[in-house]
Write a structure and sequence with these properties.
Elements: H1 2-16, H2 34-44, H3 46-65, H4 67-83, H5 90-106, H6 113-132, H7 135-175, H8 181-193, H9 196-215, H10 217-225
Helix pairs in contact: 1-3, 3-6, 3-7, 4-6, 5-6, 5-7, 5-9, 6-7, 7-8, 7-9, 7-10
């Protein structure tokens, strides 16, 4: 946990304090192939993605190690998930998961503090479920769709941190007389533009996750748990 927290602090410093990492020459929007543009965008978001993943991971650890502490706030969501297990639909799951992702992104205007909470809470819930369910069952019935869903949630957190970073650039241009506001505004614009491709990828992953969870997860899980 301590090591993970230290890595998280380093990510925050890389994102918000070390300007050299992000004062880069942004390529024109149409420069290079689509594959290269996508690669460049996610390369610039590497610390944001790592920080988002770390928050989810720390939540998992706390939920698994201290289930009694968080039981009061997690039992109700767990019961709701169990009750709705037989009535889930692709569209319903997509809308539910998308609403969480959109809330995480929208929270960027609040300095991403609610984003931090939502990322941690999602991890907390996963860790808590791990204490209530046999490990093999948990993996079999969450892995098929969870790979896509959790990746999308991590990307949503990264997008929020990127937008918050852009807002800091604008604030810096307003209050710091040593820099030109126009230059900071231009950097902020490119930072926000960086979020377009990740948003598209996020929604694609959520659609895939919803379809798998609604139509395939149970069958795949039963197949994985069937003795050879």
């Amino acid at each position: 946990i301590v090591l993970t927290v230290q890595i998280g602090i380093q990510c925050i410093m890389k994102i918000y304090l070390n300007r050299d990492d992000f004062q880069v020459e942004f390529k024109p929007i149409r420069a290079g192939s689509k594959k290269q543009r996508i690669k460049d965008v996610f390369s610039r978001l590497k610390y944001h993605i790592l920080l988002s993943a770390l928050l989810l991971f720390i939540g998992c650890v706390f939920g698994y190690l201290f289930p009694d502490v968080f039981q009061s706030i997690l039992v109700s969501p767990l019961d709701g998930m169990r009750q709705s297990a037989n009535s889930i639909t692709t569209m319903g799951l997509f809308i539910n998961n998308s609403s969480v992702a959109v809330m995480m992104i929208a929270a960027s205007i609040c300095l991403s503090l609610p984003t931090v909470y939502l990322s941690f809470f999602n991890g907390l819930f996963i860790g808590f479920v791990g204490t209530q369910t046999p490990f093999a069952t948990l993996i079999a019935f969450t892995l098929p769709h969870g790979i896509f869903e959790l990746t999308a949630i991590v990307i949503a957190g990264a997008i929020a941190f990127r937008i918050t970073q852009a807002l800091f650039e604008v604030f810096n241009g307003v209050i710091n007389s040593k820099v030109k506001f126009a230059d900071e505004l231009k950097v902020a614009y490119h930072m926000i533009a960086d979020c377009i491709i990740p948003v598209i990828v996020m929604f694609i992953l959520l659609i895939i996750a919803a379809f798998i969870e609604a139509n395939l997860t149970i069958s795949i899980g039963q197949l994985l748990l069937t003795p050879l």
